[in-house]
Amino acid sequence: MINPIMKLAAIVLAGTAVATSTAVAQVKLPPSVTMTAYDTGTSGFNITVAIGKMFKDKYGTDARVLPAGNDVARLQPLRLNRATISAMGAGVYFSQEGVFEFATREWGPQAVQITLSSVDCNGLSLAVAGDVGVKTLAELKGKRVGFVVGSPALNQNALAMLAFAGLTAKDVKIVEFASNNAMWKGANNNDVDAMFGSTIAGPAKELQTSPRGIVWPPLPHSDKAGWDRVRKVGPFFTEHKATCGAGSEFSKDKPIEIGTYPYPIYTVYGSQAENEVYMLTKALIEGYDGYKDGAPGASGLAVKGQTKNWAVPVHKGAVKALKEAGAWSDDQEKHNNALFKRQEILAAAWTDFNKGSPSADPAKFTEEWMSARKAALAKAGLVNTF
Q1: Which of 101, 10, 26 has its CA nearest to residue 58?
Q2: One cellular component GO annotation, for this chain's record (predicted)?
């Protein structure tokens, strides 16, 4: 069953099927598709709704979007075959690695794989309420920073941004919330000062128009030491110049030097049928014009703009679709195969670990697993960033 503390709301997208061309008719989607995403109003949710509308308009497929407050709730329906695809963030990487909330007896490393992901004009970083007076990340020392219970991606991302300024969780006041939306509402209610998110997220725009306002402290790309600290905590982050988002400081002429990673990342399980994932990915590619303007950030899903050689492998069905679109290379194939191997090693380590009668105490279980995981990766000559 889905964790009861994670509330999943369903939104059924209505529309009228339209005639398809000969090329589009090659795509065969099921009558309905269920997708999970971040909370209602977030950029990931809005993009997924836009894609769902395209599925209905172009292919006659009803799309059901389940918004969820954390990574566990987003992946659980996919894991139980109650959803087809999930709009994930960095949590897809943590689930692959079997760390944080996935370093538990119920989860462990997951064979998650990706299809398409978005990198657009927006950035991903720590937003700060404007009335706090913070202009740099270093000035967050002693301030209230939001965490979301059961969402290691958001929390680790916040720590990665703090690391840029040489700060840790001990240097700030951590305030915990039940969901991403609750955290941003907390900012409006003056319960928290800074929270991680996308510059184009709906809640960020709400904060911008509130009495508190919003600012996005930059992460200057010239600060190599700062970026080295970021990647020690969040190895999936890259430098990015953001030109859009909530806040008066954004401009195409004067972009903010900030960070990002692909988001949303449309995620499936490796066990899902190759043809099923191929058709989904092909629909996302061929139907791009039908959703690219449907929500801020959706245009970042363009097939030619896909992030290459990322931290989680691309599903074989998606690889087939990318190859057909001329958006795949031999270098990517080699990198992808190495990531498949990493997942196999983590899965074997998890199986061997559980055969050894690990502790029944949850905290000790996680500690023992992290130790076994570290040893397995070291034996295979693979990097361990945790």
Answers
A1: 26
A2: periplasmic space
The amino acid at residue 313 is P
Distance CA 303, CA 137 (A): 34
pLDDT digit string, tens, across residues 31-40: 999 999 999 9
CA angle in degrees (0–180, nearest 5) for 3-99-108: 60
Token code pair at residue 301: 């899903």
pTM score, whole prediction: 0.78
Q: Count how many Cα atoms sit within 13 Å of the Cα of residue 262 in the half-sphere of its side chain.
A: 24
Contacts of 37 (CB under 8 A, 6+ apart): 44, 45, 47, 48, 65, 66, 67, 68, 74, 86, 87, 264
What local confidence, expressed as pLDDT, does residue 289 receive?
98
d(CA 125, CA 176): 18
Q: Is 80 exceeded by the pLDDT of residue 199?
A: yes
* Coil, strand or helix at 40: coil
Question: How is residue 164 written in tokens?
Answer: 């840029």
Token pair in block for residue 279: 């058709």
161-175 burial: b if 16+ Cβ within 10 Å, else e: bbbbbebeeeebeeb
